[in-house]
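The passage that follows is intended for readers who have already worked through the single-chain material. We present the inputs for a multi-component assembly, then the predicted structure in tokenized form, and finally a short commentary. You are encouraged to pause after the input and sketch how you expect the pieces to fit together before reading on.
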Amino acid sequence: MSDKSNQQISNLMDGELDTNASKFLLKRMASDDALKKTWENYHLIKSCLQKDKDEPLVIDVASRVCEELGMPKHKTVETKPVVNKWLKPIMGIGIAASVALMSVLILQNQQLEGSIPVGQPNVANVVQNLSIKPIKTNISANVATSETTFVPPPSLSRFPSVSSKNTGANTQSFPQNSQLPYLIIINKPNNQQLSPMRSNNVSD
Amino acid sequence: MNNKQDKDNNMSEKAIDLALVKQAQKGDIKAFELLVQRYQQRVGGVISKLIKDYHEIQDITQDVFVKVYKALPKFRGDSAFYTWIYRIAINTAKNYLVAKSRRIQNTDIEPVDAENYSGGFERQNFDTPDAEYERQEIEKVVHDSIADLPDDLKQAIILREVDGLSYEEIAEKMNCPIGTVRSRIFRARDAVDNALKPLQQKEYKRTNYVR
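Having made your guess, compare it with the prediction:
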């Protein structure tokens, strides 16, 4: 509620506001409790200054009348920040959409991890070749205890030029007990014959 | 010249009432609430000339406005809205006193109580201490806030509310433009309103807690 609205109320009650603004303000006041309270208080001040000493002030008759006429009693003075009515469903949709998006992304990620076509180039190679510094991870799992060689066939590689250019013989070896750049998730393929990966000293 | 044009374009107090009445006649209770807020003190004042008990005044004032709302379809706007309410208020208060006197006549009074019996219609004050305190507090805040205002604001609001002068007359008297009068009167009202609100919030919380 602005000072401008209050000033307009002050002008209105003295008949000092033009007709169009008055009509607009009356409509606004009817639906705005804060403006209504200002209107009521300005009249209360007028009555206090005009009344005889033995005339009592009547308090809160308006809300009692409205209650009796069937309008629910409105809260006076206390105002809360109002969220637009049209904003509520949009907010709901937004939240639902972001949750759905998150779950789709997680699902896709899981599916990708679970169904990487056999013979995909090692992600480590690609990332190294793209000169992105990967996060170093200490791996103490059995998988990494021995020297592991991955040989992705160029035909199945998503990035054949990259993988062959930098790895020479399309092999990447990791020294024993060294820090590996990635946590390697090995999915055992159903058909062993299709597997292009060879891992020396890694027991099944 | 400009001031005269402005005055012609302005919505008079009677026109404001009529606009609100038209809305209320269509069933808009919120518009009617603005009318009640506008006139509740004046109606209460009229009723208090006949009845002194504060709770009865509140109840009859409420009753008057309920009757006014129900009779709104009959209001054609020939007379001022307040004149019409005033008649309803006087009639309601008189009817209340007649009904009360009948009740009192039909009541058997024991000889022991007769000594203390005061007759019924005399002005009595049965205010609860809380209600009395609340009213006194509001009046005190209003008068104190007016007294604390700067002289120019104080003079403007008193010329308007107590002496009932128009803005044009106040401007002439205070030797300033009408715009300044408007601003001074608003600033005075706003200052008193700001002083009243904390008190009303406190009362609102207290009465709701009691309920």
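Commentary: Chain A touches chain B through 56 residues (CB under 8 Å). Residues 28 and 35 of chain A are 8 Å apart (CA to CA). How closely did your sketch match?
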